[in-house]
């Protein structure tokens, strides 16, 4: 025996309420995941940083350094060339190699000058990486760069 039921207002309300509950639940889950995996701020006060940006950029450009980086066979190679195209070792090098989306795999490379480039052993899986560089020239000028790298 087949029973027929009619679709009334309460059924329609239940369907709509269920659909909205699913949508709100998914949105809350995604929002929580986004906030909980946020790696943090690049700068504490963007207004103050913006006041020095042009002067910092001009000082870095005046150095005329050509910087490149690559990862091959678990070795990170950082080449720094002066305005004449000659490789040199900056006075100070601080770097962080990590993923752009999270800080769980961040590493601090221990660079060694081999006469032509700075090299560091890094145990990182293949994929897209970002190298954040903070270098200092002999005259104290700071040089900062963010270099995207593909490890193969």
TrEMBL record:
Xref: InterPro entries: FixH
PROSITE patterns recorded: PROKAR_LIPOPROTEIN (PS51257)
Name this protein carries in UniProt: FixH protein
Pfam families assigned: FixH
Top-level taxon: Bacteria
């Amino acid at each position: 025996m087949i029973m027929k039921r009619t679709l009334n207002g309460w059924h329609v309300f239940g369907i709509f309420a269920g659909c909205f509950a699913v949508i709100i639940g998914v949105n809350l889950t995604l929002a929580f995941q986004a906030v909980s995996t946020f790696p943090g701020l690049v700068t504490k006060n963007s207004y103050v940083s913006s006041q020095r940006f042009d002067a910092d950029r001009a000082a870095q450009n005046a150095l005329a350094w050509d910087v490149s980086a690559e990862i091959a066979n678990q070795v990170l190679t950082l080449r720094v060339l002066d305005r004449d195209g000659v490789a040199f070792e900056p006075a100070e090098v601080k770097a962080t190699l990590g993923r752009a989306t999270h800080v769980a795999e961040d590493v601090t490379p221990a660079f060694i000058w081999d006469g032509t480039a700075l090299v560091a052993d890094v145990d990182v899986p293949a994929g897209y990486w970002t190298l954040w560089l903070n270098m200092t020239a002999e005259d104290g000028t700071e040089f900062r760069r963010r270099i995207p790298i593909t490890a193969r």
